[in-house]
């Protein structure tokens, strides 16, 4: 323990840093050829996305857009049940058809024109 | 494979025509830092393939910050790599604990060139570097990060703090403790002189 303490005290921070920095630089400059090649290959694959991958995304996007358009088209043209409410609404608001309804049930209008209705209104 | 690597090195400073996705300077930065990043990851993970994966992931993520000023690249890259290493360490710990406790095999040796002249000197250097790597690996993670970034990579205290995600005071504390431990572990190496 005393030996360790004296050893620790005799080595300065700068000496330690300088020695280990030199050893580390030696280690970095002595990477194996295989590792250097793999590092450069991985760097290349990281910095240049593969064309196939880019085309793949474009194809997928186009396919999704096509499916959405086809779905929307099919829904508007092939589902007859989807349109009738609009047709009914249109029918109900059409003035010609309203006249037809009144013509079929004129009792209400006959009563409105009667004396009883006039008396009730005056009360 | 080696020929491809040499070709890439020659091409790196200049972007290929039409390729505007990556600024050449960032590509060059990543090419320059690759070897040092690998050693950093190798010490942290003690496994060559995991170290390569960590470096590649860090490079890919770094490309997302290409708009950042060049002065920020260094602490940013080390920060990304450091976090990636921590992720891999945690994943590995989970794997060891629950899935495959008997299949793990730490690579005790370090990656080293095999075709240098003077095999005896190369062997000595390799042993020395392996010993330093083992001493750094044995340090607590934060101490190892502080010493590696501040001393070996020569980042200033501010950049080291940014890369580690802590205060400058914490960096100094971790660094001081790392030095004490390393002096105990490697005192004879330092006093014996450089290879």
Summarize the topology.
The complex is a heterodimer of chains A (123) and B (195).
Chain A lengths: L1 H9 L2 H17 L3 H15 L3 H28 L5 H10 L1 H10 L2 H6 L2 H8 L1
Chain B lengths: L1 H10 L12 H22 L2 H15 L10 H27 L19 H20 L2 H12 L4 H8 L3 H24 L4
Briefly, what is this?
The complex is a heterodimer of chains A (123) and B (195). Chain A is mainly alpha-helical and 123 residues long.
Detailed description of the structure:
The complex is a heterodimer of chains A (123) and B (195). Chain A is built from eight helices and no strands. With 123 residues, chain A is mainly α. The longest helix of chain A is centred in the middle third of the chain and has 28 residues, at 51-78. Chain A is elongated and about 125 Å long. Chain B has helices at 2-11, 24-45, 48-62, 73-99, 119-138, 141-152, 157-164, 168-191. Chain B is globular and about 45 Å long. Chain B has 195 residues and is an all-alpha fold. Chain B is built from eight helices and no strands. The chains are: A mainly alpha (123), B mainly alpha (195). Chains A and B meet through helix 1, helix 2 and helix 3 of A and helix 1, helix 2, helix 3, helix 5 and helix 8 of B.
